[in-house]
Structures are given as structure tokens and as C-alpha cells.
Amino acid sequence: MSQKFNYREIITKAVCGKGRKFSEATHTISPSHRPTSILGCWIINHKYSAEKKGNTVVVQGSYDINSWFSYNKNTKTDVATQTVTYSDAIPLTMQDSNILSDEMDVIARAIQQPNTLEATISENGANIDVQVEREFVVECIGETKVAVAVNPDGLLEDVPAADYDDVSDEEYERLDPNFLHEEFDK
């Protein structure tokens, strides 16, 4: 059997850029009454979109912060609700230099939805300061070329099974799924 392979270039869509960012922010909520104590705080209605701008992906979004608090010397309670917006610029730490076009599809996933870390009464005593964390992973999908070896001797099914290098389950478990990612970072 001949070992000389021909190569073909295939144009395909692939992940051509990746990035990840963890963010913390502090938002100030203005309740209708002067708070005595904070009873709870939660975040709902998270919405976001992403767009590639240069070597970054900008994620813009909003969410509602609901802060349950007591007032009037802990004799009454109320919930203050406020919608806040944010913009996170996520640098692309892995980029393929062989892309064929600047047009890319952007996928953004919140791997840590906005979550309240702490809610406290502000120093002026009239507002509530809410510390929030969030984390995103982004991927840019674009057209690129890959080279594929073509065996001139035909299909692999023509080669006896004994000629294949079998990978054991143990060897498969030891494979590093990030080895290609490390090559792109160089």
C-alpha cells in the first residue's frame, strides 16, 4: 500500500475565536422608603445579545433586581424593583488567522447567570447597593480552510483491521481535549 497522500482543501464553518469573562458590578437601587434592613435580593428577567467588534465580543444585556427590605423601624416591608443594563467587552483569547471572511456568527452563553453576591444599605441610608456577578463564554463561527489527506489507494475499509492502531479506553481517557486550544493561543 502506498503511503503517499494527496491533500485537498475544504472550506467549512468552524469556531474561529473564543473568549471568556467573569464580571462583578455594583448597582444602586432607590427604594420608595428609607430601608431599615435587607431581607432578600434576587435577579430575574436576564436578556442579552452579542456582537463582534474587532478582537472582542461585546455582550449587552439587562436584568431586573428585586430587593425585599423592611422600613419604618422593621414594622413594614416592601420590594424595590429596578431594571439595570450592562455592557461587557470580552476579548477573544483564541483566534484563527485563516478565516476567509470577516462575517461571523457569534454565540454567547451565560455560564454564570447574574447572581446577587451581597445587598447592603448604602452609606447615605436611603439606597440599596447590590453586588452582582456574571460570566460569559463567547464563540465566533466563521468560514475557514482545512487540509484533508486523501488516500490514493482507496477507502480505509480495504485495509485489514489489524493495520489500525486501536486506542484503548484507558488511552482515550488520558487524551487532553484542550491540546489544540493551546496551539491557537501561541
Note the topology.
Blueprint lengths: L5 E24 L5 E19 L2 E16 L4 E16 L2 E2 L9 E17 L6 E23 L18 H6 L4 H7 L1
Antiparallel strand pairs: 1-5, 1-7, 2-3, 3-4, 6-7
Keywords: Capsid protein, Virion
Protein name: Outer spore coat protein CotE
Pfam families: CotE (PF10628)
State which percent range the strand residues make up: over 45%
The major beta sheet can be summarized as: 4 strands, antiparallel
Radius of gyration: 26 Å
How many angstroms does the end-to-end distance come to?
37 Å
What spatial form do the alpha-carbon principal axes imply? elongated
Structural category: mainly beta
Instruction: Compute the number of strand runs.
Output: 7
- Total helical segments: 2
Mean pLDDT: 86
- Arrangement of strands in the largest sheet: 5-1-7-6
Low-confidence residue ranges: 181-186
Total tally of structural domains: 1
**Helix percent band:** under 10%
What's the order of the H and E elements?
A: EEEEEEEHH
Question: Could you characterize the architecture of this molecule?
Answer:
It is a single chain. The protein is built from 2 helices and 7 strands, in the order E-E-E-E-E-E-E-H-H. It has 186 residues and is mainly β. It has one domain. The strands form 2 sheets. A 4-stranded antiparallel β-sheet has the order 5-1-7-6. A 3-stranded antiparallel β-sheet has the order 2-3-4, with no helix packed on it. Strand 6 (105-121) and strand 7 form a beta hairpin. The chain starts with 5 loop residues before the first strand and ends with a helix. Keywords: Capsid protein, Virion.
